[in-house]
Amino acid sequence: MHISERARRLHAGALVIDAHVHPSLKTYLFHKKLGKTHRSGGAFNPFTMRVDLPRTIAGGVAALISSIYLPERGLLDDCKVLKFLRKISFGRIRRLFKGDPLERTLEILDQFERAIAKANSHGRELARVVQSTDELLQARADGVIAVVHAVEGAHSLGGRVESVATLAERGVCMLTLAHFYENEVVAPVVGIPRSMQKLGCFKQPKDLDRGLGEIGPAVVEEMLRLGMIIDLTHCTPKARHEIYDLCGTRRPLMFSHVGVQPLADDPMSPTAEEIVRIAGTGGVIGVIFMNYWLGEHSKKKGLDAIVATVRRIVEVGGSDAVAIGSDFDGFTDPPDDIKDISQMPRLTDALLDAGFGELEVEKLLGKNMERMLRLGWR
Predict the structure, then answer these.
(1) What gap in Å lies between CA 171 and CA 228, rounded to an integer?
(2) pLDDT range class, residue 203, cuts 50, 70, 90
(3) Each residue of 249-280: pLDDT tens digit?
(4) Closest Cα partner for 174 from 282, 284, 256?
(5) Among 16, 48, 311, 356, which residue has the least CB neighbours within 10 Å?
(6) Residue 320: CB atoms within 10 Å
(7) What's the CATH code of the domain at 301?
């Protein structure tokens, strides 16, 4: 795909931040090497890798919000195939479903930091774990990819409010409260496309009338106190509105990887009212790179759907309310025209071609996320 010189220049000078990626699970489960260029492929495949360090450098991405995901134990009841595979698989997969969830989550985090250290062990620092916005900008100035930890799913707290402080001490900047199954903090929407609900998996019904759980309000208050960003992705609409009421405008709120209504008519997608509320907190909505959640179900290419979603957010909430949240290396099938992080300049080119101004594009690429981190991560 041709990229204009204007887009190349703008992208090279911009602070580019992807607010939601999942390389840590690939390095943990499949021993993927961050310092190696991996095959990304053109469809959903858990054995590919779309975010390695060479591809991140090629894509001009300065910072990754790397989301640690501990597979939920509900998967074993909801997916007979996975239950069978766990019995015959190597120990690391079996271990994920045993013991304290917080300990297992920190184990994945520790292993990911070791993977970064190994990638840096050949005479050049490629990536650096950072624990503040200033450290992120310093890494960029040093020509090093900044990696910021996040966690997806409050099941990782193990049902304990005090686990929030443990994650904060490890530098976790953001917690996505919900994921596939209800936890002690919050209830989820359906988070898997119908096309992926195969082999008897992901069939458990979701109750959209459920909101925050027993410790939900306390966890929200602790995150506000400590300065950990609350990510509303996967939460039910009821839970989201409860969180809006609890938080007010004390700190920014975020959707890290979604489409929006009415383009993507799904309970996971924030409404126009919600876009306005997120913008009012100083928060952002990260646009996911997956056609199903953007509303373009039948198409293989999706840059146009990403651009349309960006336009909708900007029209409703303003240009300060939008960011990138690709969900690369998650349970996603990215569009064929932007299938891994090395192709991020294609988005810059498509936005400019669609008539967005250079300042608007710079905000989307990373300036909005930088601002939100400064306001919400302390």
Answers:
(1) 9
(2) confident
(3) 999 999 999 999 999 999 999 999 999 999 99
(4) 256
(5) 311
(6) 18
(7) 3.20.20.140
